[in-house]
Amino acid sequence: MTKDEALKIVKEQLTDHRYQHTIGVMDTAIRLAGRFRADPEKAMMAAIFHDYAKFRPKDEMKSIIIEQNLGEDLLRYGSELWHAPVGAYLVKKEAGIEDEEILLAIKSHTSGRPGMTILEKIIFLADYIEPGRHFPGVEDIRSTAEENLDNAVKQSLMNTITFLMKRNQLVYPETLHTFNDIVRQQGGKNE
């Protein structure tokens, strides 16, 4: 599938604002892929399709999560997380994307997961730092992303976890596990 074909499919699923976000994620992912030696074509496709299910009805997403055994524990946390695993499923089913690396990057782009591949980290981070994002700390993470992918992902996870805690919202355990995994890989200790 070409870039233009993929963008046409995705544009039909998104609002104009979310489509512009997707373009920003795509451009950022391609740049990060070049910097961190990932496949730019896979980064481009995963970025284009990362929010494919973002605007699906919640009832439809909930049904897919249950029927496809995508992790019913997700249903106890914010519905903002649902579109990632549902999107990976629907991208395969409706858009015919079969590449498991691309699908995994789509699936984990909201919560992360322990053992993330470089492509997953790139999509996770590109979604967080694309040029249309404006919030406290994003510039620091953009700067960190120029030097160290893991540090930037860890910093974005810390920001997300802190943001949710300050708002007295539940933190999805996979997000905490992802943070802990990166800390362990970097030699962190529990002392």
Q: What's the quick description here?
A:
By secondary structure, this protein is mostly helical. It contains ten helices and no strands.
Description of the molecule:
The chain is mainly alpha-helical and 191 residues long. The chain has one domain (3-185): Hypothetical protein af1432, CATH 1.10.3210. Helices cover 63% and strands 0% of the residues. The chain has helices spanning 3-11, 16-35, 40-49, 58-67, 83-95, 100-107, 118-129, 138-145, 149-166, 173-185. The N and C termini lie far apart (49 Å).
| Radius of gyration over all CA atoms, rounded | 16 Å
Distance between the termini: 49 Å
In total, the number of domains comes to 1
Low-pLDDT stretches: none
Shape: globular
What is the CATH superfamily classification?
Answer: Hypothetical protein af1432
Would you give the CATH topology?
Hypothetical protein af1432
Q: Major sheet, described briefly?
A: none
Alpha-beta classification: mainly alpha
CATH architecture: Orthogonal Bundle
How many strand elements?
A: 0
Instruction: Provide the helix percentage.
Output: 55-70%
Element pattern in H and E: HHHHHHHHHH
Report mean pLDDT, rounded to a whole number: 94
Strand content: under 5%
CATH class: Mainly Alpha
Question: Can you count the helices?
Answer: 10
